[in-house]
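Before relying on records like the one below, remember that each one covers exactly one chain. Contacts with other chains, cofactors or solvent are not represented anywhere in the record.
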Amino acid sequence: MSKNALSPIDTFKRELELAAPMIAKMVPAHVPFEKFQAMVIMAVSQNPRLMECSPQSLLRATADAAELGLSLNPNMRECDILPVWSPNGSVAQCRPRAGGLMKLARQTGDIKDIYAHEVYENDTFEVEYGLDRKLIHKPSTSGDRGKIIAGYVVWVSSDGNKGFEVIDQKRIERAKSASEGYKAFKAGKIKSTPWATDEGEMVRKTAVRAGSKYMPMSSESDAFRRAMSLENEIDGES
């Protein structure tokens, strides 16, 4: 690199400045653009692999994060900009976490409460359907909960009605196999994937996505709908 050449992160900062007028329009009114900009730069700086992604994908991921209005602070566990393997090389993608999706659901005003959990084989887990639906989950206290066998999301709508959706092992495996990153990991093309390093997070997220099809959502739920659309677009689901 010559003395006058910009480092990859400085190049990104310059491109972000050029795109700032467009991206600033997407950031929610309650989030100062300067704060959002600083979070993006910090997120990119802390993950050098993002500099290997195409500049176009990195700016698009930034725009997607701005539109959702979720925090990129890793301590908040709401949203990430990640390098994702693709047959044409790594691309940057905005990936909301389960906590971020649930935050957006609450912000719609249609959902008063929502939570998701993974279920392990040594837990007590009972589900009943019919006129009186019931879900019971008691985590094992033995110390060894075993492997993950299911996941679920529970929500309470603004009018007090309750609902839940359960995903079984088959549904979990289907979500996992749809991930390009997991397929690349299994093939030895990349060293890690969230499905390998944080399966519980991915199961909770899959449960929220599955349940979103049945949650009451008004036409005002733009950010939540956009997050669902973004996730389906990435994983090729409808």
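The longest strand covers residues 111-120.
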